[in-house]
């Protein structure tokens, strides 16, 4: 479905059509041809290429018959451009060459430059789409360089108007920079493109010029490849903004594609999908860009598949950790080797999955673990494989020195065991690193050495055609692309063709090593499938495997540099993609194979990846080609548009035109051929069509339609339906209800919405996306009843003021003075989404004369939550105000999750819920009921009993903090029976509860077959209850037990350890906060291997563990069996040194993700150590400029050289603390609140936090005593402890 077109574009087309018709009727051939050309350009800009071609042919036919030859210049150029966009290269070349010939005849240097540029562009496209047509890249190089020389000549000519050819000169830099990107010369590309931007600034080219857009586009690609994420994102977003401002929808779509690629590589999958969806909507608005839209949709599916692989990787990580624990327990026993082999199989699977989703830091981690396993197995072949894996990870992270070091280690070890194939792979990979680092001669020598070694291997009776082919293709790439040695490239190509012809049937086969057999291969082959790896990969483990093939010849490995966008040629085809990283059999990422093959055997690990030629989607054209070579989805780039101006033909003084020769694909010498061009010179003669002013649309009958709502005001909610906060008005912008007006005006479709931003965003924490939701709810509530009756909620896409997108609340606030009384902010509606429950809720509000709660409306509007999940916590609902919602639920009935927690509801609501639950449809579906944090009493006991008995599918019930006591607890116990589906029960913070009621409940819960999690937080437990609890834990298989604030004491806590440690337990979550525990409990806990190896979240906050207990905690965290992800030890009097001990322990812990160390330091202690901190404290350059690839080890002695702290003791402590934080690589959330750290010290700590794996992802929440360090995607606060779930 096409997007709604801008009125000015429609008007231009209509006026051009009228002018063409009038010229034809008057038999004015010159005007007829001109207007046909104008119409063709308008249609081209709308993406209607086929229709545009029809009109441009009319222009050509009339011009060639009736007009002078010079009139055909612009016509031929336009036809060449449109054929290029349609990928009809043969026709494009015909018209482009004709354009050049006529420009030469007319001695028109400007048109010659445009023709030369467009010819270079076409040959560039041919190169990208071809298998091995490297002559086209030579032609593209020659044409682009000649175009730059000619553009400079024209620009500097005294006969030309200064600045008249600046744009073409800038575009020439862009074109050559893009070509350097394709040839993997990133540093050179950066220099050329930055020079282009410099010229833009020097010549004062306007900020929203399309020439700047193209430069930003390609610079975004350069920095994306260099893994400089922030700079890449800056340039990509500038490209998007400019394209949006100038109405270039295709360029904007491709900008979003690039943004999605960036986010995909950073594993920001939700954000990547969002960017691709924006690109998809833009592409669908263009008539003839179906291929682009389809490929963007394909990319979205690829990201979703990658998300599945990430989930599989996390599961396999858990399996690997279990194997590590089993291996540690089997040390010195006969089964130790068996577990090591299973570990090796599991790590192979993790290596493969990390390749699939481009997590190169994980690949490095897994490679080093494989190295350790191989050393324990004394298997040199596996050890060599691990060296290549580590080298590959460093290569992908662009740390070429370390990559070379590890590849050299791999080569030396393969040489030691006489493995020629491994030596060849190491040499080929070394060549790829040298090529990327600019040492082309060294790279070619390495490729030749790899080919020589694999040829020796074949001579000793082995079939290694895939590795041999990989070496030859890299040699061919070097000769042709790096050295322009056509003769040597031709000879190498003949060898490649011969090898393919003779070995074609074996290219996809996995080769077996003949010289040496892995010491562990036979042992692993003899094991049963079950013994090999607990959950290791099978060929069907991941669907993304089918998404990742990069070569029809199955000689390519996973390569991060092949972008997610499947928007261009499906593979960078054999000739121009050198192989780098692995055996050719890894054409599609190696399916996770059985461990019967070591990495060097499986084509997946020692993969030789081809050197790709990257192409990024052009602003100007849709470069896409369906992958006809592979059944796999391939992600591709698209080249940024090579633009030339659409200005009128300009004449300059005579100047020599550089002659350019086309390179024949087969000849050994160059033969002269005419140049070609790449511009879009429009034929129009300053025929500007007037743009229509924006009309002020009337909004009729609105106030009357919503009169009922305006008479009720929910004054308790800042975002409620109060008319003083917002109102929809007629087009008279000045007619506002407030004097002076405090409203900002938003234009939605044809309606004006007046909003008081200060009231809506009273807390100051709304994001721009949350503001869109607020506006959508307000707008929906104010719609006439007829429009609301369909239950369609608007989804707002963009906010725009004067053509500029507003992407932050700061931008919105900065403009509100202009959008008050004078103008408005335009809000675009992307879609209308059905929300039946919300419609019913508002209908019942109107029926019951109850004002709708905007908080409830917003939660019901949530597009991420389906209508069968009603989640409305913390909405200040009372029994009366909740009545419309409950009526809606009764009518809707199809509910699986109902969350009414943290409201002001009473027993009346529970009684109503009981009636709803008696509905046959509901009681068969309801699975989760959460009414915690409401004002209930024991009068609700019978209703709760009925709900438990009737809702057969209910597995989770949360009635924490509801002011209920023993009576209700007893009713709940009486309602349970052995067939109950209940698995999770939360009863905490309800008092008083008698021991008898609690014992009765525990006995009933023990009879439930599937019960998993129990929360008794805040309920005081007596000794008999603790005894019953121990028996219950012994009889059940618990995943969570929350006993915080129960005062059970040390003895009872230690008593619980044994039943919780039995083999059948799967305890994941344990809360013993504020239970009076000391360090002795930590030691006892650490001795129970089965318990600490399973718990993922442990809360020991509020216990007097003291500084002495920190040693026990540190020991627990260093234990390789410890799998804790979340540890809470706030208010434990640990002291500064205790905090330091715990953080130091995390350098060897690869599991802990969240750590709460708040309120552990006394004021006197911090003053004694720090005194008054110098406000000029600064961090050294080492801390400010981290390198993710260099932070494997601490290098702590250098980290704080620039810190100006008076005493050596303070300096030492800060240094140790920052180094400990830096080395805690897996930590995602760290709470250091209320520990007395000054602002200066907090800055130092955040700088340390921002290093290593968290570089580019770190964020902080620091205000007053709050010090929360976290990463993107993790909430550091705002989640109620009772609502926290693993």
Automatic annotation (TrEMBL):
<feature type="region of interest" description="Disordered">
    <location>
        <begin position="525"/>
        <end position="555"/>
    </location>
</feature>
<dbReference type="InterPro" id="IPR019734">
    <property type="entry name" value="TPR_rpt"/>
</dbReference>
<dbReference type="InterPro" id="IPR032675">
    <property type="entry name" value="LRR_dom_sf"/>
</dbReference>
<feature type="compositionally biased region" description="Basic and acidic residues">
    <location>
        <begin position="525"/>
        <end position="534"/>
    </location>
</feature>
<feature type="region of interest" description="Disordered">
    <location>
        <begin position="1"/>
        <end position="25"/>
    </location>
</feature>
<dbReference type="Pfam" id="PF13181">
    <property type="entry name" value="TPR_8"/>
</dbReference>
<feature type="region of interest" description="Disordered">
    <location>
        <begin position="581"/>
        <end position="605"/>
    </location>
</feature>
<keyword id="KW-0175">Coiled coil</keyword>
<feature type="compositionally biased region" description="Polar residues">
    <location>
        <begin position="535"/>
        <end position="549"/>
    </location>
</feature>
<feature type="coiled-coil region">
    <location>
        <begin position="296"/>
        <end position="333"/>
    </location>
</feature>
<protein>
    <recommendedName>
        <fullName>Protein TONSOKU</fullName>
    </recommendedName>
</protein>
<dbReference type="InterPro" id="IPR044227">
    <property type="entry name" value="TONSOKU"/>
</dbReference>
<feature type="compositionally biased region" description="Polar residues">
    <location>
        <begin position="594"/>
        <end position="605"/>
    </location>
</feature>
<feature type="repeat" description="TPR">
    <location>
        <begin position="253"/>
        <end position="286"/>
    </location>
</feature>
<keyword id="KW-0802">TPR repeat</keyword>
<dbReference type="Pfam" id="PF13424">
    <property type="entry name" value="TPR_12"/>
</dbReference>
<dbReference type="InterPro" id="IPR011990">
    <property type="entry name" value="TPR-like_helical_dom_sf"/>
</dbReference>
């Amino acid at each position: 479905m096409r997007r709604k077109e801008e009125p000015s574009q429609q008007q231009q087309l209509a006026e051009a059509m009228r002018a063409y018709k009038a010229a034809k009727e008057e038999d004015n051939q010159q005007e007829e041809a001109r207007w046909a050309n104008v119409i063709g350009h308008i249609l081209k800009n709308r993406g209607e290429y086929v229709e545009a071609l029809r009109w441009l042919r009319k222009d050509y036919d009339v011009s060639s018959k009736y007009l002078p030859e010079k009139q055909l210049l612009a016509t031929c150029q336009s036809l060449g451009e449109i054929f290029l966009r349609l990928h009809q290269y043969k026709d494009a070349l015909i018209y482009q060459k004709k354009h050049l010939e006529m420009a030469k005849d007319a001695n028109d240097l400007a048109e010659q430059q445009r023709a030369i540029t467009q010819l270079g562009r076409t040959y560039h496209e041919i190169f990208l789409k071809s298998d091995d047509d490297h002559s086209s890249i030579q032609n593209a190089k020659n044409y682009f360089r000649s175009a730059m020389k000619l553009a400079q000549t024209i620009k500097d000519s005294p006969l030309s108007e200064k600045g008249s050819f600046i744009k073409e000169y800038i575009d020439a830099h862009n074109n050559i920079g893009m070509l350097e990107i394709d040839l993997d010369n990133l540093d050179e590309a950066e220099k050329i493109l930055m020079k282009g931007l410099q010229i833009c600034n020097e010549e004062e080219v306007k900020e929203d010029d399309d020439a700047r857009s193209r430069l930003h586009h390609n610079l975004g690609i350069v920095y994306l490849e260099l893994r400089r994420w922030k700079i890449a994102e800056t340039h990509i977003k500038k490209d998007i903004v400019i394209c949006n401002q100038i109405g270039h929808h295709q360029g904007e779509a491709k900008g979003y594609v690039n943004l999605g690629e960036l986010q995909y590589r950073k594993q920001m999958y939700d954000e990547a999908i969002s960017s691709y969806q924006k690109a998809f909507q833009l592409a669908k608005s263009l008539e003839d860009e179906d291929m682009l839209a389809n490929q963007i949709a394909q990319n979205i599916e690829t990201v979703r598949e990658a998300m599945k692989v990430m989930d599989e990787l996390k599961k396999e990580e858990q399996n690997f950790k279990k194997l590590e624990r089993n291996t540690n327990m089997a040390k010195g026993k006969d089964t130790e080797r068996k577990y090591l082999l299973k570990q090796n199989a599991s790590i192979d699977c993790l290596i493969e999955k990390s390749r699939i989703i481009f997590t190169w830091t994980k690949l490095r981690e897994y490679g080093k673990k494989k190295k350790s396993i191989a050393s324990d197995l004394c298997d040199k072949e596996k050890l060599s494989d691990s060296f290549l894996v580590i080298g590959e990870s460093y290569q992908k992270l662009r740390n070429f020195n370390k990559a070379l070091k590890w590849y050299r280690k791999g080569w030396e070890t393969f040489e030691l065991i006489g493995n020629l194939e491994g030596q060849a792979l190491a040499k080929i990979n070394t060549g790829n690193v040298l090529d990327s680092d600019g040492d082309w001669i060294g790279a070619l020598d390495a490729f030749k050495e790899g080919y020589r070694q694999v040829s020796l291997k074949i001579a000793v009776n082995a079939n290694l055609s895939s590795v041999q082919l990989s070496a030859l293709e890299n040699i061919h790439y070097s000769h042709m692309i790096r050295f322009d040695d056509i003769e040597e490239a031709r000879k190498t190509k003949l060898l490649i063709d011969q090898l393919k012809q003779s070995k074609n049937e074996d290219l996809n086969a996995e080769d077996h090593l003949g010289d040496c057999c892995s010491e562990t291969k036979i042992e692993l082959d003899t094991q049963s499938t079950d013994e090999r790896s607990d959950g290791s990969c099978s060929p069907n483990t991941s669907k993304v495997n089918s998404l990742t093939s990069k070569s029809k010849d199955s000689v390519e490995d996973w390569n991060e540099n092949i972008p997610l966008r499947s928007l261009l040629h499906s593979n960078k085809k054999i000739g121009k993609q050198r192989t780098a990283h692995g055996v050719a059999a890894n054409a599609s990422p190696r399916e996770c194979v059985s461990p019967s093959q070591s990495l060097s055997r499986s084509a997946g690990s020692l993969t030789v990846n081809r050197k790709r030629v990257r192409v990024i989607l052009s602003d100007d054209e849709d470069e896409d080609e369906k992958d006809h070579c592979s059944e796999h989805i391939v992600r591709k780039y698209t080249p940024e548009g090579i633009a030339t101006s659409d200005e009128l033909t300009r004449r300059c003084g005579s100047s020599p035109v550089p002659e350019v020769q086309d390179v024949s694909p087969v000849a050994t010498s160059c033969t002269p051929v005419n140049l070609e061009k790449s511009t879009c010179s429009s034929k129009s003669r300053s025929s500007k069509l007037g743009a229509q002013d924006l009309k002020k649309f009337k909004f009729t009958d609105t106030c009357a339609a919503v009169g009922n709502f305006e008479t009720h005001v929910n004054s308790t909610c800042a975002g409620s339906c109060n008319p003083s906060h917002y109102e929809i008005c007629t087009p008279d912008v000045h007619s506002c209800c407030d004097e002076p007006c405090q409203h900002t005006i938003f234009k939605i479709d044809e309606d004006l919405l007046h909003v008081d931003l200060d009231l809506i965003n009273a807390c100051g924490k709304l994001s721009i996306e949350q503001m869109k939701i607020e506006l959508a709810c307000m707008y929906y509530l104010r719609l006439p009843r007829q429009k609301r009756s369909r239950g369609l909620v608007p989804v707002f896409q963009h906010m725009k003021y004067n053509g500029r997108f507003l992407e932050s609340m700061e931008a919105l606030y900065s403009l509100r003075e202009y959008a008050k009384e004078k103008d408005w902010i335009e809000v675009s509606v992307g879609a209308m989404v059905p929300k039946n429950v919300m419609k019913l809720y508002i209908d019942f509000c109107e029926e019951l004369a109850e004002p709708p709660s905007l908080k409830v409306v917003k939660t019901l509007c949530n597009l991420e939550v389906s209508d069968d999940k009603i989640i409305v916590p913390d909405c200040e609902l009372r029994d009366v105000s909740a009545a419309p919602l409950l009526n809606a639920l009764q009518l809707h009935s199809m509910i699986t999750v109902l969350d009414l927690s943290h409201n002001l509801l009473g027993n009346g609501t529970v009684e109503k819920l009981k009636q709803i639950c008696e509905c046959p449809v509901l009681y068969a579906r309801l699975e989760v009921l959460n009414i915690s944090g409401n004002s209930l009493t024991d009068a609700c006991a019978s209703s709760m009993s009925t709900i438990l008995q009737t809702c057969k599918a209910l597995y989770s019930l949360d009635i924490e903090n509801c002011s209920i006591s023993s009576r209700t607890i007893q009713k709940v116990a009486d309602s349970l029976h052995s067939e109950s589906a209940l698995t999770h029960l939360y009863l905490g913070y309800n008092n008083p509860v008698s021991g008898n009621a609690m014992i009765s409940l525990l006995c009933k819960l023990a009879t439930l077959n599937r019960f998993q999690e129990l929360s008794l937080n805040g309920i005081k437990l007596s000794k008999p209850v603790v005894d019953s609890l121990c028996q219950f834990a012994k009889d059940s298989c618990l995943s969570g037990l929350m006993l915080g604030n129960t005062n059970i004491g040390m003895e009872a806590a230690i008593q619980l350890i044994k039943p919780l440690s039995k083999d059948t337990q799967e305890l994941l979550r344990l809360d013993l906060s504020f239970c009076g525990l000391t360090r002795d409990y930590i030691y006892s806990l650490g001795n129970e291997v089965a318990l600490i190896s399973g718990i993922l979240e442990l809360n020991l906050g509020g216990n007097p563990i003291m500084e002495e207990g920190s040693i026990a905690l540190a020991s627990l965290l260093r234990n390789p069996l410890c799998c804790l992800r979340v540890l809470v030890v706030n208010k434990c009097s640990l002291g500064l040194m205790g905090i330091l001990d715990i953080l130091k322990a995390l350098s060897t812990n690869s599991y802990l993700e969240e750590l709460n160390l708040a309120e552990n330091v006394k004021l006197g202690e911090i003053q004694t150590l720090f005194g008054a901190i110098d406000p000029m404290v600064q961090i050294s350059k080492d801390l400010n400029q981290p390198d993710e690839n260099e932070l494997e080890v601490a290098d702590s002695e250098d980290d704080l050289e620039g810190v100006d702290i008076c005493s050596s003791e303070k300096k030492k402590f800060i240094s140790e603390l920052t180094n400990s934080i830096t080395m805690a690589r897996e930590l995602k959330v760290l709470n250091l609140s209320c520990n007395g750290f000054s602002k200066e010290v907090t800055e130092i700590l955040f700088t340390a936090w921002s290093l290593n794996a968290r570089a580019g992802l770190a964020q902080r929440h620091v205000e007053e005593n709050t010090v929360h360090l976290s990463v993107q995607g993790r909430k550091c606060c705002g989640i109620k402890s009772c609502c926290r779930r693993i």
